[in-house]
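Q: A reviewer asked whether we had any structural model of the full assembly, not just the individual parts. We don't, so I'm hoping you can provide one. Inputs are below.
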Amino acid sequence: MDARRDQMESKRRENGNNQQEHGQDEPLKGTFASVLMLGAFIAVSWIGVFLLFLNRS
Amino acid sequence: MIQVHKTTDSKLSLSHILVAYAALTIGGICGMLQGLVRGGVIELPYGIGYYQVLTAHGVLMALVFTTFFIIGFLYAGMVRTTGPLLPTVNKIAWVGFLMMTVGTVLGVIMVLLNKATVLYTFYAPMKASPWFYVALVLIVVGSWCALVAIVSQFRYWKRTHKGKISPLFAFMAASTMILWFIATLGVAATVLLQFIPWSFGWVDTINVMISRTLFWYFGHPLVYFWLLPTYVVWYVILPKMIGGKIFSDSMARLAFILFLIFSVPVGLHHQLMEPGISPTWKYIQVVLTFLVVVPSLMTAFAMFATFESYGRSKGAKGLFGWIRMLPYGDVRFLAPFVGMLLFIPAGAGGIINASNQMNAVVHNTLFVTGHFHLTVATTVALTFFGVTYWLIPHLTGRTFTKKLNRMGIWVTIIWAIGMVIMSAAMHIVGLFGAPRRTAYTTYNDHPVALEWLTYERVMAISGVLLFIAIILLVISIVMMLRAPKGEEEFPIAEVNAAAGQTPAVLDKWWIWIIILAVLIVFAYTMPFIDLINSGPGSKGWVTW
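A: Here is a predicted structure for the entire assembly that you could use as a starting point for your response.
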């Protein structure tokens, strides 16, 4: 059982190293947050001018 | 490394870049002057007209600077990724350059003589000297030589590398020129079939609506002709600048194909307020316009991912720790990066412009001017400035020095501040209703118009700031041409090893061009049938 746990641990470490080699394998949390903020900015701008349209019509 | 300087290919690219910056300088002087006039700060001497200066500014900046820079840059990248231009290709390219240059000189002479004060959109029924339209033909046909040159070089590479996926830069360069060709068919049709016969007096009238529709068939993809080379820099060159990798080759190609497909059959969203076009077809083209959001957001995602992957590989922690890892001290990265950031509000403004109801709020106001000063004059221009700082040394066998870098950072900062202030003022005062393309006026001291004046003066001040940046840029170019001899690399990034293999279908043009042709026929056939039967046409007017 311990041997199997060691093997899994060693595999996890190896994966970790590979992830550092290929940065893309890292979870892109910052990218996800950035595109969400970008989308929110676009939506807020659009809604703002739409409200202006409603207000003037 | 292959030495490219002193070859006819490098001279070809350099010639394009230098004409582009000559146009930027003259266009920049015109821009500053028109800002000062509009803000009521100065009056133009010697009978020079505001609209004359405005025409020169628009034509030189939007058409000449961009087209020459793009073609020069793409040639250099083709040489870097596919090898020296074939002798025939090189000859065709030089013929194109000469035609474009003669066309530019002729067009500028007509504007300076006040024979073509029709603004860069040259809307009928304003009628310029026929030689202005001949100048446009020379510029467009010259640019088609660049299309033939780049596509021929691309096809030669494909023939000699059977079964291989083309270099990403070469694929993107060919996409850009194919987009340009399809777009310029519209402007060629209106100039050759309508404006030239009408302006020479061979026919009495012109169908105004058809000419405007053909212009915007060209005018919207023109925006993507500016943006695609900008995206080339972001996708292929910036990763190398930061020491990272291209996030995904397939994603980049797919984004370019989608831009190609969705940037052409959408021109009617520039004509939402015009009568004579069925609301149904306006609606359909607005929907197609919004599809361009998909490749735009794919590009945003790919950029963030490239930066984050690089930052994490350097040990960045936290959600946004990777932002601190980027090389902000290098103008070759900083200028395109600032352009990229300012593309976020630019894109948001574009979605507002293209929405039918909101177009009613902003149509023909300074909001629209603010929008394209963020897109082409900030995002595109700053990206091209960043490229210039390594491209001219690369082409001339010079080195990029620390002093040049410092100058470039100043240019970037001043340009970005100037454009942010100017565009913000334009967006705000546009929402208050201030019209675009209008000389200084207080409308008999109407209180609403008087409220606009403060913003217009802010625009004038920022115009001066931008001119200072242009002076620094011109000094930088002279310094680059005299910099110490050496080798400067044309940076091309590699694709991330973890990215999947590119499917061959993304390298097959004919499929995507057929889809685009079908969409164009679908989106424009019925509107044109309506427009052909839309009245007797108009005689020409000289309004200046």
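A: Points you may want to mention in the reply: The helical segments of chain A are 2-21, 29-56. Chain A touches chain B through 26 residues (CB under 8 Å).
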